[in-house]
Amino acid sequence: MKRLLSLLILALPASMNAQMSNDDVHKYDHTNQLFYRNEIVIPGFDGYQTLKCDFHIHTCFSDGTVWPNVRVDEAWQEGLDAIAMTDHLEYRPFSDIVQADHNASYEIAKKEADNLGFILIKGAEITRSKPLGHMNAIFIKDANSLAVEDPLKAIDIALEQGGYIIWNHPGWPDNKSTMYEIHERLIAEGKISAYEAYNYMESYPLTFDWYEQYGIAPLANTDIHGPVAQDYACGPDWRRPMTLVFATERSEAGIREALDARRTLAYFQGMLVGSAEYLTKLIAVSLKTRHVGDRMEVTNVSDITYTMVQGDALYIFPARKTAIVPALTGPLTVKNCLYGHNKHLEYEF
User: Fold this and answer.
1) Which of 154, 183, 178 is nearest to 167 (CA)?
2) Taking a C-beta distance cutoff of 8 angstroms, is the pair 259, 164 a contact?
3) Does domain 49-272 sit in CATH 3.20.20.140?
4) Are strands 271-274 and 332-340 parallel, antiparallel or unpaired?
5) What is the sign, positive or negative, of the torsion defined by CA atoms of 186, 192, 196, 197?
6) Which pLDDT value is given to residue 4?
7) Residues 222-268: tens digit of each pLDDT
8) What is the per-residue pLDDT for 238?
9) Running along the chain, 349 residues long, what does each successive block of 10 average in pLDDT?
10) Residues spanned by CATH 3.20.20.140 within the chain?
11) By C-alpha distance, which of 202, 287, 303, 204 is closest to 244?
12) Strand positions, DSSP E, 139-258
């Protein structure tokens, strides 16, 4: 009897949602179907909250293959808090089919973003070969006005609109992360404010020193063109590249203030790159400790696994798990946290 009752209860949702049209077709009410979001848990510190962002996104309005509102749905479902729509200004291979101005992809996606309470930032990619390379202008007001022949003029127009300039994939396409004279000048003039330490499936290790050397913020972005699931569907350590932004509030204004203050870390494939100060503070709020006799219990409350070594000993603190280890004293080298080229963070419990 109990088994029969259980089977009847399990059958209730389907029978309640089914709407019989006729003997040949059963229609189902999908209005209660859930739209799931994968929450990424990364704690904040010093009163800041950690926002997961991607500031380099393409759609079919330039050389991507995805409709703009799908980009918002993908990012929301994967647990991000914000993306920037940055279609190319100069490269639009589908323009004979997808006919619209440079603001269209943002305007289409903004409706979906507002519906989900998701943060969407207006941007555009200024596309040139090296030595300048590709630049994203985000927080702009009108992408059409940036479509000018002189890329330096386009940067100035973006800045006049309150824009923020990111140097994209500095090691592409020649596999050399060269800091050219033009970049040094634009950085000195306060025009380039950030760079991509990670782009798509690439990292640029020589750039990891640029936070300290040039005062520009490290970012990690997808530069995604096709469906996100085609490239980043291999488990938590293969999540899409994310820029961790430590913001005072979950808003576009909060993100902008944090970027201006360089409160970012670049994250991809379990690796973190950025300021030693922010790396240390993030680990401190992520790993909770208590002594158990002569040993130590370490609980990782975050979705980032930390790998540390001390001498010949290896200690792994998996995401959202608790480990029992010897009582650790003295500094440990954090293998997946870098504050410069080949500079691994030293952390002490």
Assistant:
1) 183
2) yes
3) yes
4) parallel
5) positive
6) 45
7) 999 999 988 887 666 678 999 999 999 999 999 999 999 999 999 99
8) 72
9) 45 48 73 76 98 97 93 95 96 68 95 96 97 98 97 98 98 96 98 98 97 97 94 74 98 98 96 98 97 94 97 97 95 98 97
10) 49-272
11) 303
12) 164-167, 194-199, 202-203, 217-221, 242-247
Tell me how far apart the alpha carbons of residues 197 and 217 are, in angstroms, rounded to a whole number.
Answer: 9
Which residues is 243 bridged to in the sheet?
Answer: 53, 266
pTM, 2 dp: 0.90
Are the beta carbons of 53 and 80 closer than 8 angstroms? yes
| Rounded Cα distance, 271 and 39, in Å | 19
Give the CB-side neighbour count of residue 266, counting CA atoms within 13 A: 29
User: Is there a contact between 45 and 282 (Cβ–Cβ < 8 Å)?
Assistant: yes
Residue 292, SS3 per DSSP:
strand
User: Where are any strands of DSSP class E within the chain?
Assistant: 18-20, 26-28, 49-57, 82-85, 119-126, 135-138, 164-167, 194-199, 202-203, 217-221, 242-247, 264-268, 271-274, 287-292, 295-300, 306-310, 313-317, 322-326, 332-340, 343-347
Residue 164 — φ and ψ, nearest 5°?
-135, 125
